Amino acid sequence: MVNSEKSAIRKSNKKVKRITKQKVKKSNINERFDEKIKKLEETLPKINPAEGGCAEITFTSILEILGFQNGIFNNLMIPLSAGLGGYKSKDGCAAPCGVVCGSCAAIGVIIGGQEKMKSELVPIAFIKGSQFPTAFEREFGSVSCPDLCGYDFSDQDDFMDYFKNNVWEKTCYKFVTWAIDTVRDIAQEELVRNW
Model-level pTM? Predict the structure, then answer.
């Protein structure tokens, strides 16, 4: 066998291995979701939500399942838990729970992949992004953080009472595990195709 034939065989073998790895990776996406949810059910009630918040935990947990770990994503999502997620305006308009924010962001990553989302995928992201809060509201009766947990994070006293009364370990962590499972259901087709 000449060197060029050996080189072609090696390239072919590498390509087969790469395709096989991709198929294995895609085939175990549901297993990775199941493992992450199981782990979170054990660990979330014990963590300090002040170390990240529900938007950050939801979003970065899904990104970890997909193979991403980058502190920039954590930093991006942390302010959303209170600045958007737990905020209540002076007129009484309450923002959605941070879990809803983090889940919708994760749906965008799942659909768009690792590059800027193609314009033909934007309508799909809009539709699937709107399916999540609809499902969340159906399950829990509201998407509003103050309605769900009983506290207004724009009020410093309420924010502190949320922690003093252990609301995270009694209530809020359950939203995260439900959300991760529901994001998987909503974006199953894209998960299998893209990840």
Answer: 0.82
